[in-house]
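Now for a chain:

_____
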Amino acid sequence: MIDRNLELPNGQVLHIYDSGPAPRTVFWHHGTPNLGTPPPFQTPGIRWVSYDRPSYGTSTPVPGRTVGSAAELTKAVADALGINEFAVMGHSGGGSHAIACGALLQDRVIAVAAMASVAPFDAQGLDWFGGMADIGSLKAATAGRAAKEKHAATAEFNPEVFTAADYAALEGSQKWVNDVVGPAIDAGPEGLIDDDLAYVTPWGCDPNQITAPMLLIHGDDDRMVPATHSKWLKTRCATAELRLSPGDGHISVLDRAREALEWLSAC
């Protein structure tokens, strides 16, 4: 895996990760707060490409970025690496960014896999905060940057957002998550703040624009992003298939990542 800073034509710097040429390319979109280091469930025949979103790691900030901004950034990375078509995959807020790529890059994205994804904040008919164990961080973001920054300065992790299955996964099969969360937090709250502000403002695209096949996987016991978000996305996206994962929470649902990769490989 090669990771390096990539300077885009507009002067923006993104820290990218690239496993090198392979028959199929998958762009991985990381959650919040994470770095973009690709997860350990890569499979043969797949080229893994990802990047630290702006304000994470050495990726420079993009003031006012939206979830939809991921499409422009992903396209720029693909162009720099000479990649024409690719699939996109993400977890949690990363799933939202993958969905935005599918909506805005219809001529490039061949498939979308989103796990435990957040739906658009303006989703009609969805109780967006309903079922979340802790709404403090995202609720603060709805009041603007100053309120979000104030909240981030004193906020503490609420252990209720994870289930027993989540904690077991963090100690075992998904232990790698700790390695991408820790450095992202240690570097400061800017990436998290920018992400949360993006989640509660218009995405700049509509998921119903997606024409590629889409797979939604969501734990039915998710307390961080309830499964109602993926259920709403399923009703909005004509190409979407929804697979609920009984007994899984926000992290343990990643145990089904290889299933998502098999699906992507078959598209």
Summary: The domain at 2-266 is CATH 3.40.50.1820 (Rossmann fold). Strands lie at 2-7, 13-18, 24-29, 46-51, 86-91, 109-115, 214-219, 240-245. The two ends are 25 Å apart (CA to CA). The CA atoms of residues 163 and 249 lie 6 Å apart.
